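Reading is simple: the token line describes the chain's fold. The lines below illustrate.

. . .
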Amino acid sequence: MGQKKLIKFAAIKEYENVLEYPQDMQGKWAAFFDALGKNKSPIDIANLAVSDDTLLATNPTPTNKMALNKPLTLELACGRGEYAVGLGRMFPEQNFIGVDLKGNRIWKGASIANKEGLKNIAFVRSQIELTPNYFAKDEVDEIWITFPDPQLRWSKAKKRLTHPKFLRLYQQFLKGGVGKSKDIKEVTKNNNGIDIRGIVHLKTDSPLLYNFTLKVIELYGLNLLYKTDNLYAEATIDPRCLIKTYYEGLDIAQSNKIHYIKFNIDKELPIALDDILKETIKDIPMDAGELLRMEAEAARAKKE
């Protein structure tokens, strides 16, 4: 590992806004951000309150009440954390967590958040597969997946972050997911009566990943709230979609278009349908840029 990476890894170990494979954090994120906002150091995770009632009973201040009502959004495979930081700047009354395995990338976003005093932003260093270990049922309001590896090879489809394998993981902690709590009193619906809690956003330059995700939504009967295969050509754009990441600037897929999908996952995802999905996605074509990228990756793998 290079010297610069070692320095960054050492730095994030000292950051209060970075947790590496955190244990015993389910249900404690509201209390964690409350402590982070009060500049408590070190933050004692073991003694963080698990529930709203517990924290309010011990310290029922207006500040605590506000902290416990703040929505929580995750940026999965966050890389340098541009979306977590960008959203944190836009919505100081909400909390945001970037999740990624690469500590040297997380360091960038965490350092910016620290420099700017953004106490509503944190990062978790971990594999995405482990996220249910860190968040309690109904603890997360929304998920953003921005420019993930599209896993172009058909044999790697299960590694795509919008594959049902991953969606089932998100349902374990995303509000509006299957088996949602009965004590949730407020249900937000759009004009068509569709529950819009527990939203997943996908922003990508990969036509393959875009079409794959639409196929998943269709096959499993999920609620498609919005889609576009050319985001910046739309007459009206959600301001959150204007945040640009480092990887967006690279235009790795060479598609010259940004694709965006907004959906929620409030239905069961039958495992029996996975085999059908496996066959139907074989017909999803790649564009020229993606074919070139896959060829380049294959050539690089041979050299290694």
Notes: The first strand starts at residue 18 and ends at 20.
